[in-house]
Amino acid sequence: MSRRKFEAKTERFTNSEVPKLLFGGAILGGVAVSSVASPLVGIPLGLLMAYRGFTADCKLAECEEAVLEKGLVAPFLTSRTDLFDYAAEVGEEQALREIQTACDRNLPISAVAFNFHRVKTNRPHPTDRTSEIATNTDGTHPWDDAEMLAQQLVVFAGGMGSGKSTRLGGYVERRLKQGGMVLLLNPFSSAREWRSLPVAGRTMGLDPFEDVENALLWFSRLIDARAKLLREDATFDPLQHPHVCLACEEMTNWGSRIDAELLRGFWERSLQTLRQLNASVVIATHATTLDGLGGKKAAGGYADAIKRQACIFKLHSRTNPDQSPGQSPKIPAETCEFKPANEEKYRSIPVDMSFAASRGNGDFSHLTGYPPDISWLDAVGIPKQA
Description:
This protein is an alpha/beta fold. The protein folds into two domains: about 5-120, no CATH class; about 135-350, Rossmann fold (3-Layer(aba) Sandwich). About 45% of the residues lie in helices and about 10% in strands. The chain is built from 14 helices and ten strands. The protein is globular and about 70 Å long.
């Protein structure tokens, strides 16, 4: 992708409709208040909103000028995928310099540019205080790579803007770096996300929920096959075969569309000793309620076991104090509630904002060397011979 194409993508930010909305609001608000209360109140209110619209428009005009005349592109890209692609083309240092220049000129920048700069430059963050996140009894901390990958069932739960998908991407990347294989399940996944990974639910001509059901069935059969071999074949060692991770995103919406019996079977196997079978499950959902775990019919009988055996991170969001046109009104909170596996009590810990995929959740091609489907694996998760 050429630099000019990246420049065109900044128009989503620089051509924001916010100033127009403020101008329109100034007129309507002024007229409404004047008619209901008094012109002495309505006119100043309208002028104030008009002034805010004018200043916002001026700032966006400065941003557009910065793109055209100064060559600043990175600060105004609103897509993580576009920003990481741009950084890969011009160099990470160049992208960081552009973002810093925009900040020095007091220009509004996109939320993804802000987070990119914060992570890459290691700006001070509560997670820098290692002693505060060493909350486990053995001295490790929950965000440590080895500690996270030792878990067989991990749940990231939180509302919009809490960062659950970002943490899911961090987990997926760490599994891939370890040499594992990841199958992602999301019936709402877009083509811009999770590129180069096998994604169940992103199909042409097939019901996405039916595709997810097929993937759940495949995973259940894989677990059963490995467990059977482990019992009956003294030479079979699951650790000598690829680790298989099932990553489930947006599970909150599964209950009414996925076969309950199939989901019950999935939970039954997920609560087995997946670690011995060299497999794991990671989930991103809105809540750890029955609805958030696939519905009452599916998870009802396993709810207590899931909440006890899973390693759970309850993530939160907060209002974005630096919100500018094009930015999200919510950003991840700096702390979360954490419960280790096989424990019952939650405790508050800082969120490691660097626990994210290095290129965002858009592209994992630098870490995968297998086709984006599961047809090339046999029933035990072993690559088929050509």
